[in-house]
Amino acid sequence: MLVSGNVQIDGTLTVTHHSFVSIPPAAFMPLSDGFYDGVIYSVERVQLMPNGVGGVSFPSYLYAPVNLPHGAEIVKIICWWEDNVSHVDTDHDPHLELYRCSLNSGVKELMASLRSHWNDSDRHLQYAPDQSSDYASDSIEHKVIDNYQYNYTLFLYLPRADDDNNFCALGGVRIEYKYNP
After folding, report:
1. Per the confidence metrics, is the pTM higher than 0.85?
2. What is the pLDDT of residue 94?
3. Which SS3 state, helix, strand or coil, does residue 27 take?
4. Is the CB of residue 46 less than 8 Å from the CB of residue 170?
5. What is the C-alpha separation between 101 and 112, in angstroms, rounded?
6. How far apart are CA 27 and CA 67, in angstroms?
7. Residuewise pLDDT in 10s, the chain (181 residues)
């Protein structure tokens, strides 16, 4: 807001700010389960891809923390994929999910999900909410951040490279939010 001169306000003035947080590929850490075989962080391409590209690879499960201001409202989640894997089973498409986890009970709640199903070697973006896509959430649940009761985490699944050595890679994530300071 730009004001020149004197202003008198009767009541409360609320100013909403829009901002962004960017989560780079290097922020994702492996989950320790039986399927993890590692990932490669490509400095040249600045992306995550399954380890074993050029040989045998296994799916990768990773997570990254999300730190937003208390009371912020998530407006949009965008991720960049490079995905040239031929997907035959949508249950195993690369996907990114945002969860909140109760500090008291440990119960996770899904907030949004983005799923790549492209078979395209060019980098593309995907966002939620997106009512025109079958692979992105058409809404974001529990979109107001409550750091008093919850922590927030992105979970990422990257499938193994296919028999033709095609792979899926994550280029990064951006979360748009608004807040009242």
Report:
1. no
2. 77
3. helix
4. no
5. 13
6. 12
7. 566 777 777 877 778 899 999 998 888 887 755 444 455 555 445 566 655 544 445 567 788 999 999 999 999 888 887 776 665 555 667 788 999 999 999 999 999 988 776 655 555 666 667 655 555 556 899 999 999 999 999 998 877 666 666 667 778 888 999 998 7
- Cβ atoms of residues 168 and 176 within 8 Å: no
Q: Which residues does 176 contact at the CB level (< 8 Å), separation at least 6?
A: 18, 19, 20, 74, 75, 76, 77, 78
Q: Is 82 exposed, middle or buried (0-12, 13-18, 19+ CB in 10 A)?
A: buried
Distances (CA, A) of 21 to 72, 91, 99, 102, 117: 12, 28, 16, 22, 25
Give the dihedral sign, CA 134/166/62/24.
negative
Residue 25 DSSP SS3: helix
Report how far residue 32's alpha carbon sits from residue 86's, in angstroms, rounded to the nearest whole number.
27
Residue 161 is classified by DSSP as P
Angle of CA points 75, 102, 19, to nearest 5°: 25
- The DSSP bridge partners found for residue 115 are 95
Coil vs helix vs strand at 64: strand
